[in-house]
Amino acid sequence: MSEAPASIDPSDWVCPLPLRETARVVLGHGGGGVLSEELIENLFLPAFGGRAGPARDSAVLQTGAGRIALTTDSYVVQPLFFPGGNIGDLAVNGTINDLACSGARPIGITAGFILEEGLELDVLGAIATTMGAAAAAAGVPIVTGDTKVVGRGGADQLFVNTAGVGVVPPGVEIGPERVRPGDVVIVSGALGEHGVAIMSVREGIDFGTEVRTDSAPLHRLVESMLAAGGPGVHALRDPTRGGLVASVVEIARAAAVGVELDEAAIPVPEAVASACSFLGLDPLQVANEGKMVAFVAAEAAEAVLAAMRARAEGAEAAVIGRVVAEHPGMAVTRTPFGTTRVVERELGEQLPRIC
User: Fold this and answer.
1) Could you tell me the end-to-end alpha-carbon distance of the chain, in angstroms, rounded to an integer?
2) Under a CB-based contact definition with an 8 Å cutoff, are residues 75 and 198 in contact?
3) Which residues are in the PurM-like N-terminal domain (predicted)?
4) Following DSSP, what letter does each residue of 84-111 receive, concatenated?
5) Going edge to edge, which strands form the sheet with 67-75?
6) Which CATH superfamily is domain 27-49+67-168 in?
């Protein structure tokens, strides 16, 4: 009988692990174990430009003294990919723009993923890579996140939840309560492109020309507007769901003022107008993801408009209306025929799941 070794070094033990190569998300990817770790380290971190570090439940961001803006949003758009973008860069840009509407300088974004079992990892990787590239281009890092996997049928491939944190500079006061009669209404560019881009892919409709999403981060545009107009910039709104109409009606009601829009001055691309006519939609209620509506004091409007047009995001900026004391809480448009019509929000959404 042979003698047992005097000592055994556990580091010499080798236990082969089963091969975990898979092209699709499995439930184990959301279990918090090795598969979860591999998904984070091998897919998300490279996509977001990060690297593994101490495990934490939150990110710590260094800021100076001042006010913090915080926003959260969820993205459930279908299809996941559409002309000009996908759910990933849409989530980044949408979160940044929500912060920008408060005049905040974004400093960090979180990314939470709800993945359906069976989702192709190539699809997830493409979305994560686009998301990371969008964050890098905007200069706003994705600093922490979470992943959950649900069984087949528990989600429509992929949902993204985000939160965004920003710092509001001293002296910046933006909100609907500051809107007053005499203010000028400015839009940063052509409307309706995102909603029509989604519809063209979802319904397989060829409008004769490709309409691409307008998804873009607008925080740098807002910085330029504030630098030019200062306290004259009273309120900002990104006209996403419900489009321009929802934005101006919400501001009118919150500020107890009237808004008059000049329909002929509102920039709507011909392809969008044609598509909306074909589908029976109002282009002023179609979603946008890279446009800003600004309510600006009349004395600051010229400087703000020039600052907007000096940037690519605002090159097509236009004055589209004014704030009045009459009909408080209501928005109307002056048509090219000289008539006036009341504009009101839809009961639901013209185009469901556009973000």
Assistant:
1) 73
2) no
3) 57-168
4) TEEHHHHHHHHHHHHHHTTT-EEEEEEE
5) 67-75, 158-168, 105-116, 142-150
6) PurM-like, N-terminal domain (3.30.1330.10)
Kindly list the domain boundaries of the chain, sorted by start residue. 27-49+67-168, 176-343
CATH class assigned to 176-343:
alpha beta
pLDDT per position as a tens digit, 276-324: 998 888 999 999 999 999 999 999 999 999 999 999 999 999 999 999 9
Indicate the burial class of 89 (C-beta count within 10 angstroms; 0-12, 13-18, 19 or more): buried
- In this predicted model, what pLDDT tens digit does every residue of 182-203 receive, in sequence order? 999 999 999 999 999 998 898 8
Task: Give the CA angle between residues 143, 54, 108 to the nearest 5°.
Answer: 10
Count CA within 13 A, CB hemisphere, residue 300.
Answer: 21
Beta bridge partner(s), residue 168:
67
Q: How far apart are CA 152 and CA 147, in angstroms?
A: 16
For residue 254, the one-letter residue type is A
**What is d(CA 252, CA 206) in angstroms, rounded to the nearest whole number?**
37
- Judged against a pLDDT cut of 90, whether residue 61 lies above it is answered with no
